[in-house]
Each structure stands twice: as C-alpha cells, then as structure tokens.
Write a structure and sequence with these properties.
Order of helices and strands: HEHHEEEEEEHEEHEHEEEEHEEEH
CATH superfamily of the largest domain: Pseudouridine synthase
Number of strands: 17
Shape: elongated
Strand content: 25-35%
CATH architecture of the largest domain: 2-Layer Sandwich
CATH class of the largest domain: Alpha Beta
Radius of gyration: 22 Å
Structural class: alpha+beta
CATH topology of the largest domain: Pseudouridine synthase
Low-confidence stretches: 14-18
Mean pLDDT: 87
Number of domains: 2
C-alpha cells in the first residue's frame, strides 16, 4: 500500500464508522494535547512523524476520534487533553507571562496549584514583567486563538500612571493612533485608542486606555512616544471581564457565561 493509499484508507475507516460529528482534525488534537502549536503539529504530520492506529498519516486534515483512536508522535503515545479550563488571574508585577523562563524568573504558573499546572494551562497573550493586572489562562487552543487573533479585536482596558499630565491635544493624538518603534526597529502605527484622564497623583496622573491590539509593550511605547512615559501599568479588563475585587496574585475560574461572552 502506498502512503497516499494508507492515508485515504485511514480517513475512510474513521469517517465511515458513523461518528463523524465527534471527530476532530488531527493537528487540532495534537495542539490541544500540548504536543505543539497547531502549525507545528501540521508540519509534524506532513513530515510523517504521526501515526494513527499504527498507520503513518501525512494529511493534517485527517479526522480522528480522540476517545477511540490511538495517536502516536515519533512512536510515543499522545493522550487527549484534560477537561477545558479557563482562569482569570490578577498578575503581580515581577512575574513572566510564559510557561517557563530560562533565566529562572518566576512565571505566572508559579501562582497556580500543582493540580492546575497538570492540566497544562498556559497564558492567553502576555503582560510584560513590569505590568500587573488581568491575565487569562487556559488549555483550550480555540479559545486562546480567538482571544489573541487580530480578526476578533478583543478590547483590552488599562489604567496607566504616567509622568506629567498630558493635555487634551496629546490625548487626541493617542485617540488617532501614533507611530511606535518595535524591537526589530520597524515602526508601526497603532490603531485609534480610547483614552481619558482618570485622576491626578501629585504632578503625575492616571489615564484610562482601551486598545484592541496586542503589540509588545504597546501601551508603554504609545505613551513614551507622546512624552509621558509609564510609571505604573495595570490591565484592568479584557472585553467584558474586569478584575473586580480579586486580590493581587490570586485567580478564579471563569463562569460558563463569561466564557460565552468572550
């Protein structure tokens, strides 16, 4: 049997079993199981590194029944993802929004219980080490994609303490979008932002900002560009979610209604 025939036979065997509705794409299954990102999983499949019920599959769109089919990568069995988990964390400054850090700095996973870490949750997007506030974590790849993909333009709400107090003309500039310089040296013009003065704090002041983009250190770079660098930055909300009275460093589960609203 040729490789193409094997792939076709495997697909026909699975889809002919009368349970197509509960099948999922192989690359999606691997991503949700924590093997790799969906794109990397597709590359692994194409490279012939994935077997389904003993047959090597090279078609990323192949569908499997995660409850019945045995999937292996490089000969090692892959188990289905655990139950879906959605968390809202009040991240303190000083923590990295990654699963691990080569420099040994604390990560947001250090704030979770061992039981939650075993469910392979990971941050949805990032807050830089100096920024505190609302951070979502999940093990649901589709949810994470929807929350971070530019197509969905999820609003992110911030409170920023800045040097000085920008006049209305500067706020108007931010509302129109400004050019920022990224780590690569390239310039990027931000989309219009919602900006308002919250309150004075001595010679400085707090601003409320809402953006729907997720460029690295975007809010800090926007405010530095207009001459009012950030002293303290807190993400107070994402979409309809807010921190509420959740203490710093603590987390809670999202309700089903909150997940649906996002």
């Amino acid at each position: 049997m040729t490789q193409g025939e094997a792939d076709k036979d495997n697909v026909e065997r699975i889809e002919g079993a009368g349970h197509f509705a509960r099948l999922e794409r192989l690359a999606r299954f691997l991503a949700h199981a924590g093997v790799a990102s969906r794109r990397h999983a597709e590359q692994m499949i194409t490279a012939g590194r994935v077997q389904v019920n003993g047959v090597t599959v090279t078609t990323p769109g192949t569908r499997i029944d995660a409850k019945q089919d045995e999937v292996r990568v490089d000969g090692n069995p892959v188990r289905p993802a655990a139950q879906k988990v959605y968390l809202l964390l009040h991240k303190p400054a000083g923590y990295i929004s990654t699963m691990s850090d080569q420099r040994g700095r604390p990560t947001v996973l250090d704030l979770l219980s061992a039981e939650l870490r075993r469910l392979r949750v990971y941050p949805v997007g990032r807050l830089d080490i100096d920024t505190s506030g609302l951070l979502l974590l999940t093990n649901d790849g589709d949810f994470a994609l929807r929350m971070t993909h530019p197509r969905y333009a999820t609003e992110k709400h911030y409170a920023a303490l800045v040097r000085g107090c920008p006049p209305e003309s500067v706020l108007a500039t931010l509302r129109k979008g400004v050019e920022i310089t990224e780590d690569s040296g390239r310039t990027y013009r931000t989309a219009p932002a919602q900006v308002a003065l919250l309150q004075h704090q001595g010679e400085d002041c707090w601003l409320a900002l809402t953006i729907h983009e997720g460029r690295k250190r975007q809010v800090r770079r926007m405010l530095a560009t207009v001459g009012h660098p950030v002293v303290q930055l807190v993400r107070v909300g994402i979409g309809p979610l807010t921190l509420g009275n959740l203490p710093l460093g603590k987390w809670r589960f999202l309700t089903a209604e909150e997940v649906s609203s996002l």
